[in-house]
């Protein structure tokens, strides 16, 4: 029974099991061993393995060290032999021990062998990987180190000696705080602490260290967490010497600063020169306009004056082009959209250039599309600059035939008219055209084709292209040499939801007559006598009353007794400049705090249109101005202020306070109209609402006036004032 159990147990094992006597003869072998040697157990019993036809290295593996087992003594041996089997190396772990039987008193040798080939393969691969990893670490050009949670270094590769000057042993006796300079230490320690507490697996930091020789270097360090059984036990870092990059970065930053300084110097110079050029040009062109109307001059004298005027306008055009092109390269150049009456704007261009075309003997065609909005929002100055250059070129390079101007509007969404749309303007001429081989060169600054050299800078189309692209559009040219040219440009515009008849610069005859009879009072503020003289001549001829001041301080004194209806304010003046004077007028608690003030400037420092409007100016006219431009601006602003009585120049907050006192029904209707910017409803408030005696209140009249003139800023301020009131819903 015992023998049966022993045989059963032995044969069930996957291990190779063999019993030998002390003559190395086989006593028993299990099934696994039979499979290994390929001989049945019955053929092996009583025979030595060396006497059997068994692979020699297998025999050696199993009989090895038999002689070291002594009879009657307990002993255990373990060894790891290997042999070839089917061209693959098979590894065994052999345990050999003496087995003493008390009855009968016999000692056997028990051999148990386990196949450890897979384990050996893993160990071999692991050993290779470890060696490769060690080689990679040692050959790396970055410092690879490991530290505990206290910053004590536990390992570092040999490159540390080359980069920091420390040996590996020296470095492993140091702490992180020993190498980081004092100015960076707190930041570095905070970084490590944050990475630990937030369990961030990987992080990056740059800091300065001091080498063994006392040299300062920059390190860029990637930091990862070292974990054991899910617990953070330290940090592993890869540090690179980035001193060269930091120096390059420093030099680049300095170069950028120098470039910005140069750019600012250039911009300041151009702005200053713009002012210096425009100031005398204002006198040249201003007096030319006045002299042209002198009926006592002969035809020859008028031709001379016209030549002076033409030369001045050409010089002004070149100054404008150079200034605009320079501004395009500055960070302060911005898109300044404003609501504009589309048809009046285009009609004005058509009227001006029809006259220029007729002076040259050309016909001029102007076509309106079938449908177009009354009001659009765009940057009027930049749009005008583009179209002016294109029309000027068309007339300049056309000697016979005609010029045509047309426009169209492409809507991107019929459902939402306030989304971006594109205004496309097309100018065609029958001029000399452009040769195909030079078509792309027309956009290069200062380029002019030899065959068509003429007066100008060669900046016109360069400016048009760059400015259109700045606005989000582009310019396209289609030309047939000797036949003519078509120039199209397209820019994004916005269409306000509220489309009402738009107040243009053209004032009705009724207003003109009213102002002529009521003698509108104008205060001219300018430090240059020629500029004041030109302005007061123009004002006098148009029926206005006027006073003059040489600077802002004198203007404030004159205003105490001469209460002007409008002020023409220069910007750059001694004693007190135009900006300071305007701020004082707006901040004083007096009747004139809301008087219209037009900035009349030749440009230069502190003369940007949007900045001036933000600082309290009502409008902007650039020198040298044309008579019709100045008069139109004056009449427009004075006519708007006439919507209120002279003593009712009230603020947006006063309008808000008045609305707050109305009953809830009327308050809600007005507030909803303000939120939606429903200028139709706001313009008709007296007829839409039963306000009884409040219909003629200055607050209502002021709000109606603002709505009629699409004064978005004033309407927004009124709404803001209402939102701050506890009496109204938010």
Keywords:
single chain; 730 residues; alpha+beta; 5-stranded antiparallel sheet; 26 helices; 45% helix; disordered C terminus
Describe what you observe in this structure.
β21 (566-569), α18 (578-587) and β22 (597-601) form a beta-alpha-beta unit. α10 (243-292) runs antiparallel to α11. Strands 1, 2, 3, 4, 5 and 6 form a 6-stranded antiparallel beta sheet that branches. Strands 8-7-11-10-9 form a 5-stranded antiparallel beta sheet, sandwiched between helices. The model is unreliable at 450-458, 500-518, 643-648 and 726-730 (pLDDT under 50). The radius of gyration is 48 Å and the shape is elongated. Helices cover 45% and strands 21% of the residues. The chain is built from 26 helices and 23 strands. It is an alpha+beta fold and 730 residues long.
Count of beta strands: 23
Shape descriptor: elongated
Rg, nearest Å: 48 Å
Poorly predicted spans: 450-458, 500-518, 643-648, 726-730
C-alpha termini separation: 100 Å
Number of helices: 26
The share of residues in extended strands comes to 15-25%
The protein's oligomeric status is single chain
Topology readout:
Blueprint: H1 2-12, E1 16-20, E2 26-29, H2 31-37, H3 41-44, H4 56-63, E3 76-79, E4 82-85, E5 88-101, E6 106-115, H5 117-139, E7 143-148, E8 153-156, H6 159-164, H7 168-171, H8 176-179, H9 182-197, E9 202-210, E10 216-228, E11 231-241, H10 243-292, H11 299-327, E12 338-341, H12 342-359, E13 363-367, E14 375-378, H13 380-396, E15 402-410, E16 421-429, H14 460-470, E17 474-480, E18 484-493, H15 509-518, E19 521-525, H16 529-541, E20 545-549, H17 552-561, E21 566-569, H18 578-587, E22 597-601, H19 609-614, E23 619-622, H20 627-641, H21 652-660, H22 664-676, H23 679-683, H24 685-688, H25 698-708, H26 712-723
Parallel strand pairs: 13-15, 19-20, 19-21, 21-22, 22-23
Antiparallel strand pairs: 1-2, 1-6, 3-5, 4-5, 5-6, 7-8, 7-11, 9-10, 10-11, 12-14, 15-16, 16-18, 17-18
